[in-house]
Amino acid sequence: MAAAAALAERARPLASPNPGVGAIIVKHGAVLARGWTMPGGRPHAEAVALEAAGEAASGATLYVTLEPCAHRSQRGPACADLISAAGLARVVVGMRDPDPRTAGDGIARIEAAGAQVATLDWTPACLGLSGHATQLAKGRPHVTLKLAMSLDGCIATCTGESQWITNSASRAHGHRERARADAILVGGGTLRADNPRLDVRLPGLEDRSPRRVALTSGKVPEGWQAIRSPEEIAALDGVRYLMVEGGAQTASAFLAAGLVDRLLIYRAPVLLGGGTPAIGHIGHDTLEKAFADGLNLLDRRQLGSDTLEVYQRA
Predict the structure, then answer these.
(1) Is 44 marked as binding a ligand?
(2) Can you tell me which residues bind Zn(2+) (predicted)?
């Protein structure tokens, strides 16, 4: 399932409007076929893997990160029907699909065809589908807040100088994260002061630059979209994964509104002292309120001399 979850990452975000899913077919301890959701959302990961395996899929085990779809579409057959027809002996599902068009019906249909189904609700597989789940459960994109700061939590010096606090490895990782987002958002102050490009500057991934959004009541340049409040992200059509990058005020607004699902914190080994804080007041006037946010550390790694910490809201 870990390997299937890694395959699913290849599909994001090109699989939109469908979620990125990974699938692996195994028989007698050997991998027969792999698949992930194709650009534009079709064919699905299961269909790709089953086509590659052919008749050898009979009696095999399918590992798939999301419950196979049960609804028919003009764009392709239901994966639950394809799996049932293939004669698989066992299907291991990483996460049940919250989409009401499937929501357990896919598993039921596969079991009715005689295959054994095991559902893991396994965290790594679920994290890879966080945009799909958040959109269905909350009606908004999954939000990642990126903060690049000094050891003492500053994003700029006392004079406003901020380029560059973090090193080239951290910036490259940040561009990799941009490439996985559907849209990227900064505040109006950052837009006016820096005129940021917000593109992906990694070789081979330049075409993965996300849509550009600004949190502002003012005008935005051509090719940008403006929203006036963090809550308006729910109206960003086709956006499952939103990355928030620019400005302490914008970061604070999203945190105060409870709209941050994931935190990327890049820390450089430098003390600025008296610089611009990464975030302002977000409503935590007691420790009890602060700890109630329930942030879980998912990952910590070195990026050269910098440190990256990844937190997910519980």
Answers:
(1) yes
(2) 44, 69, 79
Question: What does the pLDDT look like over 274-306, one tens digit per residue?
Answer: 888 888 888 787 777 778 778 899 899 999 999
pLDDT band with cut points at 50, 70 and 90 for residue 243? very high
Catalytic positions are 46
Check the annotation: does 229 bind a ligand: no
Name beta bridge partners: 213.
185, 225
Known binding residue 144? Answer is no
Instruction: Please name the residues in contact with 212: beta carbons below 8 A apart, sequence gap of 6 or more.
Output: 183, 184, 198, 223, 224, 225
Q: Helix %, strand %, coil % for the chain, to 5? A: 30, 25, 40
CA–chain centroid gap for 147, Å, is 17
Q: How many CA atoms lie within 13 A of 20 on its CB side?
A: 24
Would you say 190 is a known binding-site residue?
yes
Residues 6+ apart with CB under 8 A from 39: 14, 15
Domains present along the chain, CATH in parentheses = 1-131 (3.40.140.10), 140-313 (3.40.430.10)
Q: What does pTM read for this prediction?
A: 0.86
Q: pLDDT tens digit string along 34-88? A: 999 998 888 999 999 999 999 999 999 999 999 999 887 777 789 999 999 999 9
